[in-house]
Amino acid sequence: MAGGSQFLDSERLPWIPLGPGESFKPLRFLAQDRGRVLLLRLEPGTLVPLHRHLGEVHAYNLAGRRRLIETDEIVRKGGYVYEPAGNVDSWMAVGDEPVIVHITSYGAMEYLGSSGDVVKRDSASSLREAYLRYCAENGVAPLDLGGTC
Question: Is 78 helix (H, G, I), strand (E, B) or coil?
Answer without folding.
Answer: coil
